Amino acid sequence: MRFSRRRPEEPEINLIPFIDVLLVVLIFLMLSTTYSRFTELQITLPAADAEKLRQRPAEIIVAVAADGRYAIDRQPVDGRNVDQLVAALTEAAKGRQDVVVIISADAMAAHQSVINVLDAARRAGLPRLTFASQTPNGAR
């Protein structure tokens, strides 16, 4: 009996299951990814050299000092209670439409002083309020 020696078989890598798995992963990623389109219009805006005219609404500036004193449109208010502030705000707003109250409080002013101005503006029927601030370099 003659036994022949077998040659060792070279291992084969079957790529078909590997490709199937990759296609399934690819299809999954394609379906689960959201695509967003950014539509963009190329436009050229007109330019103007003139300064824009600002129409400012009627303003009442209420200044609150660090020690709790008040001034409405640079006129000092006698006393520090809410009723006197209401009377002064009502007088300042007389005959004006859509008045905006600007509260300009000192950084060291007591919180209660600012709350008194807010309460007085509400009682005077002035619902539009804003706060003045200053940029770090000192420009307003």
Automatic annotation (TrEMBL):
GO terms for biological process: protein transport. The chain crosses the membrane at residues 12-31. Coiled coil: none annotated. It is found in: Cell membrane. Keywords: Cell membrane, Membrane, Protein transport, Transmembrane, Transmembrane helix, Transport. Pfam families: ExbD. One of its GO terms (cellular component) is plasma membrane. Signal peptide: none annotated. It is a single-pass membrane protein; Single-pass type II membrane protein. GO terms for molecular function: transmembrane transporter activity. Belongs to the ExbD/TolR family. This is Biopolymer transport protein ExbD. It comes from Rubrivivax gelatinosus (strain NBRC 100245 / IL144).
